[in-house]
Design a protein that fits this description.
Length: 296
């Protein structure tokens, strides 16, 4: 009898095997993160150090992580940066393997995996890179090195875990954006911010020492009314008064309080700016040097 030809390998089975291998290879670097009434994921950045999503981490209380296999480890907060959603933890084990964050760019339409942990078991989701764009600034003023959005269903417990490409390379950290879009904080951003948190425990933020309220000026333009001036702050040093209305900064009309907050990122500290004010109906100029927000 003639030999029965061997059926060709199923491309679906091959893809399934490749994805399974990618998850298995990265899973030892991913941990579950437990904080006060909050559950999320994180990944080993360096031996003994775990990166997780700041937004998913409770503001107070004890923190612990669960490694692959269910082993629970104590953790302490090294520092956190709400502007980039990066928080750094120190754990009681420096033997867990660190994730290698890939510097390669990604393209829209590429397959992507989100990998988190639920009590030490891998928690995976498959989707596509929906958007791959240039650097951007978060609503809180953080500088993010690339805009990467994933089209997949991310569970709340997987936030703070790894985003992987089809080859299993770690692209960065998965977080929720506005309207629960799944965003990736790229590896370059994670490394830059985590280095500063490790060295200083926080990321400096710009500070005006002013309590501001959005208002509509008499001429119809937007403005920010000074509701309070903190003694000894940059605003007080520049001579601002309660009731002043900030109309422009360095000649650019103010676009609102949120836009100003975004502009007060780490790079703004120490920068001199010129404020155009309306004071009792008169135009006034003030020179102000942006300070560093005091540590709470």
């Amino acid at each position: 009898m003639p030999d029965t030809p061997t059926p060709p390998a199923s491309p679906i089975l091959s893809l399934s095997g490749a994805l399974r291998h990618a998850v298995a290879a990265a899973a030892p670097s991913v941990v579950a993160v437990h904080s006060h009434r909050a559950r999320s994921s994180g990944f080993v950045w360096r031996p003994g150090l775990v990166v997780t999503a700041d937004e998913a981490l409770a503001e107070e209380g004890d923190v612990a992580v669960t490694a692959q296999g269910g082993r629970r480890l104590g953790a302490t907060l090294v520092g956190r940066d709400p502007s980039t959603d990066v928080a750094l933890l120190r754990i009681d084990d420096d033997a867990l393997p660190a994730a290698a964050l890939a510097p390669e760019p990604v393209a829209a339409g590429s397959l992507a995996l989100a990998l988190g942990s639920q009590d030490g078991a891998p928690l995976a989701a498959l989707g596509l890179v929906a958007l791959a764009g240039p650097a951007w600034r978060s609503m809180r003023g953080g500088e993010i090195d690339a805009r990467i959005e994933l089209d997949l269903a991310l569970r709340r417990r997987a936030e703070g875990g790894l985003a992987l490409d089809a080859a299993g390379q770690a692209l960065g950290m998965t977080v929720f954006g506005p309207r629960r879009r799944v965003l990736v904080i790229p590896g370059a951003t994670v490394a830059r911010v985590a280095e500063k948190l490790l060295a200083h425990g926080r990321i400096p933020r710009g500070y005006l020492g002013l309590g501001l309220q959005p208002v509509r000026r008499d001429d119809g333009g937007a403005g920010l009314m000074v509701m309070s001036v903190e003694p000894g702050g940059p605003g007080a040093a520049a001579g601002l008064r309660q009731g002043d209305v900030v109309a422009a900064i360095d000649g650019e009309p103010v676009a609102g309080l949120q836009a100003l907050q975004r502009a007060l990122g780490p790079g703004s500290v120490g920068t001199p700016v010129r404020l155009t004010l309306r004071r009792a109906g008169e135009a006034v100029e003030a020179a102000l040097t942006i300070g560093e927000r005091p540590h709470p």
